[in-house]
Protein: DUF1294 domain-containing protein
Organism: Reinekea forsetii
Amino acid sequence: MSTHPDKRYRPRSRRWISQLLFLFAVGGLALGYQFGWLPKGLVYFYGAASLVTFVVYAWDKYAAKKGWRRTSERLLHLLALLGGWPGALLAQQWLRHKTIKRRFRVVFWLTLMINLGILFWWLFKP
């Protein structure tokens, strides 16, 4: 039971899951390219999408602290869906941003699963 005053507080003990998934994503992309399962362009695309997504999360965190206009959650989810989810995972954990709101997290994990589903379908289509 949490004694933290904010009932939405999520303990840091679960951070390792996201970090492990990030490492699997990066390792999977590297191995996929190395064994010829993934084209180089796709690996670069995921890397670029992750970098852009991380920067957008960082900007949103900065805007939140300054009280400026925020980045829409729709855009954050779209970036994750388009392949930026490894960068989003990293940003969520390193920046401690977008980790409390349950609805956001649920939609984020759905976008991640949809993206991976499309990737696996593309790789293993008959």
Remarks:
- Residues 53 and 76 are 7 Å apart (CA to CA).
- The chain has a mean pLDDT of 85.
- The two ends are 49 Å apart (CA to CA).
